[in-house]
Specification:
189 residues, mainly alpha, 6 helices, 72% helix, disordered N terminus
């Protein structure tokens, strides 16, 4: 009589029942850290826009396809949340919580795009009153670099977690759309 084969190990449990990698508590903490980082970037961006969206930007020549200002808040809230969840999914992928070379590369690309995202808003909104149109061109260079960084992030996230890669696609689409708004503003203001 042959011995029964043991079922394959689950993604977070070793054969002896001990957790491999990050436990549930660590995963929840990590999710909140990713969400917190996104919220921090959003809040800092909000500080840069608060004084200028109703200032110079209110009278700026905007692209005909520019949505009303009230659209940006809900869209960015959804995008920042999706980005954080995507990064968390990559971080928690097998082996959970450990930084394999592919996860390290993917999360580095994510960090780069977060920094570029953080830079764009104060340059576009905050620097324009000080230096005028050159600020919009600098912002355009930043947002193009951001689009490239997000595309790289999508490509690196996808093989690790298909869901994470897919969660980043609306963000990439929005960045490309925002790039068109930025280009119009640089050309017409």
């Amino acid at each position: 009589m042959q011995a029964q084969q043991q079922p394959a190990e689950g993604p977070s449990e070793a054969a002896d029942g001990r957790s491999r990698g990050a436990g549930t508590g660590a995963q929840v903490v990590a999710l909140f850290l990713f969400l917190g980082a996104s919220a921090l970037v959003a809040a800092l961006g909000g500080l840069a826009t608060a004084n200028n969206v109703n200032g110079w930007y209110a009278t700026a020549d905007k692209a005909p396809w520019s949505p009303p200002n009230w659209v940006f808040g809900p869209v960015w809230t959804l995008l920042y949340t999706a980005m954080a969840v995507a990064a968390w999914l990559v971080w928690r992928s097998r082996p959970a919580g450990s930084l394999t070379p592919d996860k390290r590369s993917a999360l580095t690309a994510y960090a780069i795009q977060i920094v570029l995202n953080l830079l764009w808003t104060p340059v576009f909104f905050g620097l324009y009153p000080a230096i005028g149109t050159p600020a919009l061109w600098i912002a355009f260079v930043i947002i193009v670099a951001l689009a490239v960084a997000v595309a790289v992030t999508v490509l690196l996230f996808g093989p690790i977690s298909r869901t994470a890669g897919l969660l980043m696609l609306p963000y990439l689409s929005w960045i490309v759309f925002a790039s068109s708004l930025n280009l119009w503003a640089a050309l017409h203001n």
